TrEMBL record:
One of its GO terms (cellular component) is cytoplasm. Mg(2+) binds at residue 255. It catalyses: tRNA(Phe) + L-phenylalanine + ATP = L-phenylalanyl-tRNA(Phe) + AMP + diphosphate + H(+). Keywords: Aminoacyl-tRNA synthetase, ATP-binding, Cytoplasm, Ligase, Magnesium, Metal-binding, Nucleotide-binding, Protein biosynthesis. This is Phenylalanine--tRNA ligase alpha subunit. Belongs to the class-II aminoacyl-tRNA synthetase family. Phe-tRNA synthetase alpha subunit type 1 subfamily. Its EC number is 6.1.1.20. It comes from Thermanaerosceptrum fracticalcis. GO terms for molecular function: ATP binding; catalytic activity, acting on a protein; magnesium ion binding; phenylalanine-tRNA ligase activity; transferase activity; tRNA binding. Its cofactor is Mg(2+). Binds 2 magnesium ions per tetramer.
């Protein structure tokens, strides 16, 4: 019996030495100390021993069990340390490798320019007004002196939702809405930034684009106020050397009306491909508010006068950054957008 116990102890120790993982260690534990383990079997057979042998064998078996349990926990600690080391080695990171920089978002060039336009006009005492993109025909056309059969409607091919409702073709309806809200008080001094929609799609036109409309109404507003405001804007936007040129034009909602050119930002007026050798670039339309529009807005054209202007944000952005195709602005190619 004693011999058998010593043999178990010796074998168990040999088995333990071969263990490399916790799983193998568990197998050894079960093999010797489990319910059907070898040492357990011996301890169970104690009852059949003669009474005088029991204490001695019992003591020996207990010693062997204790020593085996000790060894098991010792090996278990060693294996744990080894497994941890192995895991750490496998997961080690090379801190000298270059990291993956997170992509930072940035503002769209159109928004950068729009913000700049807003800041310039806010600096001149304008406030910002907004209006709906789905607009009534009345505000989009009729209140701006463009009745149903007016040929000017052809200039603005529109997306109609019903015969009386359309996607606004310009930000000008907000003029009419603001006058209705403010009348009979003056001054009105607003800009209206926003999206507008027309049935156009080529290198310089998009079916959706952005405009900034301006409107000033007060006593004694003169054409020179319009010119001074726009010159100030052009110089803040394109540089202090900027010149502007006003050419007679026609808009149904202003009289007189003028197209406004700035000296070419590429050639400084010398003449180049961009300005078609003229030295000038058209950037906006403007004029004195038509008396009929003032009347429909609830103001007395004998009492007050005003001027209005409208510019395309895409056009200004293209000139400012020297872009040749408006569609770049809407394709959402990050390689392009990252440059701003
Ligand atoms: Zn030029």
């Amino acid at each position: 019996m004693q011999e058998q116990l010593r043999l178990i102890k010796k074998q168990a120790e040999e088995d333990l030495q071969k263990c490399l993982t916790m799983d193998q260690l568990n197998e050894v534990r079960i093999k010797y100390l489990g319910k059907k383990g070898e040492l357990t079997q011996v301890l169970r057979g104690m009852g059949q021993l003669p009474a005088e042998e029991r204490p001695l064998i019992g003591q020996l078996a207990n010693e062997i069990r204790d020593s085996l349990e000790n060894s098991l926990s010792l090996y278990s600690e060693k294996i744990k340390v080894k497994e941890l080391e192995k895991k750490l080695r496998a997961e080690s990171i090379d801190v000298t490798l270059p990291g993956i920089a997170p992509d930072l978002g940035r503002r769209h060039p159109l928004h950068l320019v729009l913000q700049e336009i807003k800041n310039i006009f806010i600096g001149m005492g304008f406030t910002i007004e907004e209006g709906p993109e789905i607009e009534l025909d009345y505000y989009n056309f009729e209140a701006l002196n463009i009745p149903k059969d007016h040929p000017a409607r052809d200039m603005q091919d529109s997306f109609y939702i019903t015969p009386e409702v359309l996607l606004r073709t310009h930000t000008s309806p907000v003029q009419a809405r603001t006058m209705e809200k403010t009348r009979p008080y003056v001054p009105v001094k607003i800009i209206v930034p926003g999206k507008v929609y027309r049935r156009d799609d080529d290198a310089t036109h998009s079916p959706m684009f952005h405009q900034v409309e301006g409107l000033v109404i007060d006593k004694n507003i003169r054409f020179s106020d319009l010119k001074g405001t726009l010159l100030n804007f052009a110089r803040q936007m394109f540089g202090p050397e900027q010149q502007i040129r006003l050419r007679p034009s026609f808009f149904p909602f202003t009289e007189p009306s003028a197209e406004v050119d700035i000296s070419c930002v590429m050639c400084k007026g010398a003449g180049c491909r961009v300005c078609k050798q003229t030295g000038w670039l058209e950037i906006l339309g403007s004029g004195m508010v038509h008396p009929r529009v003032l009347e429909m807005g609830g103001y007395d054209p004998e009492e007050v006068t005003g001027f209005a202007f409208g510019m395309g944000v895409e056009r200004i952005t293209m000139l400012k950054y020297g872009l040749d195709d408006m569609r770049h602005l809407f394709e959402n190619d990050v390689r392009f957008l990252r440059q701003f």
